Automatic annotation (TrEMBL):
<keyword id="KW-0812">Transmembrane</keyword>
<keyword id="KW-0472">Membrane</keyword>
<dbReference type="InterPro" id="IPR036291">
    <property type="entry name" value="NAD(P)-bd_dom_sf"/>
</dbReference>
<dbReference type="Pfam" id="PF02153">
    <property type="entry name" value="PDH_N"/>
</dbReference>
<feature type="coiled-coil region">
    <location>
        <begin position="246"/>
        <end position="273"/>
    </location>
</feature>
<dbReference type="InterPro" id="IPR046826">
    <property type="entry name" value="PDH_N"/>
</dbReference>
<protein>
    <submittedName>
        <fullName>Prephenate dehydrogenase</fullName>
    </submittedName>
</protein>
<feature type="transmembrane region" description="Helical">
    <location>
        <begin position="12"/>
        <end position="31"/>
    </location>
</feature>
<feature type="domain" description="Prephenate/arogenate dehydrogenase">
    <location>
        <begin position="15"/>
        <end position="293"/>
    </location>
</feature>
<keyword id="KW-0560">Oxidoreductase</keyword>
<dbReference type="Pfam" id="PF20463">
    <property type="entry name" value="PDH_C"/>
</dbReference>
<keyword id="KW-0175">Coiled coil</keyword>
<dbReference type="InterPro" id="IPR046825">
    <property type="entry name" value="PDH_C"/>
</dbReference>
<dbReference type="InterPro" id="IPR050812">
    <property type="entry name" value="Preph/Arog_dehydrog"/>
</dbReference>
<dbReference type="InterPro" id="IPR008927">
    <property type="entry name" value="6-PGluconate_DH-like_C_sf"/>
</dbReference>
<dbReference type="InterPro" id="IPR003099">
    <property type="entry name" value="Prephen_DH"/>
</dbReference>
<keyword id="KW-1133">Transmembrane helix</keyword>
Length: 293
């Protein structure tokens, strides 16, 4: 371990961190911070007593508290709850903080940032989106290496106090993530195209096949690795993803319209038996290899 990294750990090892939402993302953050002994205590906050009990049983939180208690007893609050819940609670949290740092790890940013842009404690807040996840949810889904090598997007970080950003960046360092900076609109557009559409496509494919299963009950006997990898995101939590689509509605509709247009082109080329056109469309799609190795 490098001297600089060890120094950063020592600087924060005395503080308490509250994880608000002890599911996949929050739990995975907590497990990693436990591994690196980054902080003194990890406090869990969740509306589900069952989730809190499970998180304590797994061992990635030390104590469960209410949100109000956690604010009084921690230096950092990490919000890993659905984005509609973040939108609701962030102003109340900022009303109560003094020198605490509030890190929002939600998947959409524009509406949340607009809501708190004039709050007197805006500087204690940082919008950060870890581009990592799985199709599973709940405390049991949390894993230690979820974030390694993935991207942490800081959104409008220039509005965050310097010391609050330094704490957040130290946590990102513990998670072994890369970093980039964006404004809110840019972030929400990009995530609609690289994340949100993937989930919508998977949900649609699952619905399509489930509908066919009603009349062809053995259809899943033929499902191979290609089908599984394409449809696995359909197992994702509706409690998490419905608010994301709601908060990022305009961008999601834009990407859906383009996706439907491309599906229509594939449909029309097959319907008209224009296989030259179909070949060209597939070949054009192969250019994605420049982005995804």
């Amino acid at each position: 371990m490098g001297f600089e990294r060890q120094t950063r750990i020592n600087n924060y090892s005395h503080m308490n961190i509250a994880i608000v939402g002890v599911g996949l993302i929050g739990g995975s953050v907590a497990i990693r911070l436990k591994e690196t002994k980054f902080c003194s205590k990890i406090i869990g906050v969740d509306k589900s007593e069952k989730n809190l009990d499970k998180a304590k049983q797994i061992g990635f939180i030390d104590e469960a508290m209410t949100l109000e208690e956690a604010i009084k007893n921690c230096k950092v609050l990490i919000l890993t709850i659905p984005v509609d819940a973040i939108l609701q609670v962030v102003p109340q949290i900022l009303d109560q903080v003094t020198d605490q740092v509030v890190i929002d790890m939600g998947s959409t940013k524009t509406n949340i940032l607009n809501k708190i842009k004039d709050h007197p404690n805006r500087g204690r807040y940082i919008a950060a989106h870890p581009m990592a996840g799985t199709e599973y949810s709940g405390p049991e889904a949390a894993v230690a290496g979820l974030f390694k090598g993935k991207m942490m997007v800081y959104v409008e970080a220039f509005r965050t106090d310097e010391d609050a950003f330094e704490v957040t960046d130290a946590i990102t360092d513990q998670l072994e993530m890369r970093t980039c900076f964006m404004n809110a609109d840019e972030h929400d557009v990009h995530t609609a195209y690289v994340s949100h559409i993937s989930h919508l496509t998977s949900f649609a494919l699952a619905l399509t096949v489930l509908e066919k299963e009603k009349s062809q009950g053995r259809i899943f006997e033929l499902a191979g690795s290609g089908f599984e990898s394409t449809v696995r995101l359909a197992k994702s939590s509706p409690d998490m993803w419905t608010p994301i689509f709601k908060q990022n509605r305009e961008n999601v509709l834009e990407v859906l319209e383009e996706h439907i247009k491309q599906l229509q082109s594939l449909h029309d080329s097959i319907a008209s038996e224009d296989y030259d056109k179909l070949h060209k469309l597939i070949k054009r799609s192969n250019k994605i290899k420049r982005i995804i190795k």
